[in-house]
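Q: Is it fine to ask for two folds in a single conversation?
A: Yes, each is treated on its own. Send the first.
Q: Here.
A: Result:
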Amino acid sequence: MEPVSMGIKSTQQSADPLPFARSYQLEALDAAIKRNTIVFLETGSGKTLIAIMLLRSYSHMLRKPSPFISIFLVPQVPLVKQQADAVKMHTDLSVGMYWGDIGVDFWDADMWKQEIEKYEVLVMTPAILLNNLRHSFFKLSMIKVLIMDECQHARGNHPYACIMKEFFHHQLQFGPSDLLA
């Protein structure tokens, strides 16, 4: 039996963002592919597009059953859905969404393992990643792409700053350890 079109229009778009990218966005993408990069641009200038293009460029490393993931950090709960929807719309990667009110603070290692096996991009608030790193549910070595939206918050005791101080800078200074490998 042949499939029949029911005239149902898909809400999922797979428009390729590259033709719409401006030269500065492509330059930022190229820099981010080569090295850790902070992209400082005005609101509305297309930082999310750069993040999506970066995820697309690493998608071959993230596809399940790969053990690797991408983490997209956003500083506020409403941005979790917004950024997850953007990634879903412009990539074919599987995307999970996480924030405190859904009970993730009570999840154990097995629950997080299931999420990591299921999703390629995990969009969350930074406190969740920080807690998972501190509990060794996540290791930096499993994260192929780490996007920190609004990284200007990475100061003092903000979770962005703690992630960098406790895990990233520690790994740079001392090299991978059993805790991070």
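Q: Second one now.
A: Result:
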Amino acid sequence: MSTSTTTTSVAPKPVPIPRPSASLVIVNQRNEILLVERNPKSSAFAGMHVFPGGNFDKKQDSSLAITAIRETFEESGLLLASSATEGPVINPGVSEAVLDEERFAIHQQKKLFQDFLSEHNLRPDVAALMPFTEWITPVGPPKRFRTQFFVTFLTPSPSSGFSSGKKQERIPTPDGGQEVIAARFIHPAEALEEHKAQKMRFMPPQFYILSTLAEILKGSVNTAEQREQVEALSGGAFGKLVINPLGIGKDNTGRQILAYEGDEGRGGPKGRLHRAFVQFGGKGAVGQITLVRNFDIFSEIEPAIFNIPSSKL
């Protein structure tokens, strides 16, 4: 008598396709950057400090730049928009109460962002946004994103309302806990110190960008030279970088090594380091991060070695 056994193969789960998204790094006149703290109950980046941003919404957005501006408005109340008319402003301003009412309606898909802008004679300040790297979530997490980061500088403006087409700068406020529970401006160097003291948690892209800007935005007064340096990075190879982190093992302390494009572990020249050491906790929670980058980001990013898409050159 013979017996046979059968095995049932389990089909592998499909790899999630990265969702297009955008995030905005806003620098004020004091060299502080706007960070929002994600709701601990959020389905993505729970409890993390991030730059405002979110997923591209084909119903709401005509571009990723619009996504960044809309999401910033929804999450923090800051509206990067100017009068749509030349000369004297026809609409003298929008009250704080109306702005908050409108941003909640947009967030709940009860109103289109473009309709809100048109009703108040406004146009989004798309031209003020500068590309500042693009990041792709590695394979593994249940949700993956392809996020275009932008950077912009706030110019001096009235605390409320509009005047001669200037931007409106409001005090950032959370969105009532829908996605974020706190919003504030903080100097990038201070944010990194708070991360080191375990008071702030970041994902690798935010840590990378904060570290980059902390090297440029020295002091508490934003200068023309600093803005020119950031603009040079945006307009050069750095701004076109598409970073798709790759785990290449762990160090002797158990930290995960994430190699970025151009690193010797990703085909870069021997000795070229472009990587992060990340301490992961339970359920994939991100702890301490250390960035190692031993090349000049202004002059030593070779498109071929860093795999910069030809469409971006």
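Q: Anything structural to flag on that second result?
A: Two points. The chain has a mean pLDDT of 85. The chain has six helices and 14 strands.
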